[in-house]
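Progress narrative, Year 2. Work on PBP family phospholipid-binding protein from Albibacterium bauzanense advanced from sequence curation to structure prediction during this period.
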Amino acid sequence: MKIKKVSFMLALLICSVSVFAQQAAQVRTPPLTLTSTAFPDGGIIPNKFTQAAPGAAPGGGASPQLDWTNVPAGTQSFVLYMHDLDVAINKTTNDNLHWIVWNIPATSTSLAEGLPAGSQLPDGSYQINGSTAQYRGPGAPATGPLHHYVFELYALDIKLDLKPAETGLQTKINIFNAMEGHVIGKAAYVGLFKRPQ
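Result:
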C-alpha cells in the first residue's frame, strides 16, 4: 500500500514539475516586437514620412523603416496595418486606413524605408491604402490635437489567399475576416503627427 502511495505521489510530482516547466517556458518566450529607426515609439513622425513632406506626391511621404523581432514559431506570413485612431469615418467605428500590407513572407524581419507604389511588392506581398496601392503618410490638419498613427503587425499561421478588392476599406475587411483564428502574434508601434502651421 505504501509503495502505491509513494508511486502516486511521485507521478503527481513529476506531472506538476512538467506543467510548471511548460508554463515557465511560455512566460520566457519574448513577445513579437515592432520597432523603427524613423521615429521613437510614441514620438513625432518626421515630415519625410508624411503628406507634409516637401515635394510629396498625392498621398505623400516615404514609408518608414519597420523592423520586428521574436517571430512566433509557426508563422507563415505577416500583415502590417497602419491607421489613424483619431478619425471616425462617416459616423462609424471605422478609422482612417493609411496602409495595409499582407502576405509579407514569414522569413521577413523588416520593411525597408520608401517602398515603391504598386499593388504587389517585390517580395510578393500586397499593399493598399484607402484608395491607391501605396503607403499614405499621416496628414492630420494643423489645427487641433496631434493624431495617433498606429502601425500594427500581425503574425499569422497561414498565408492569405486574397487579392486587393475594389476599395481599401473592403480589402481591409476581407483581410481581417480571413485573419480570424490565425493570429499567433501581434505588436504595435505609435507615431504622432499634425501638419506644421
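Helices lie at 2-28, 168-179. The chain has a mean pLDDT of 88.
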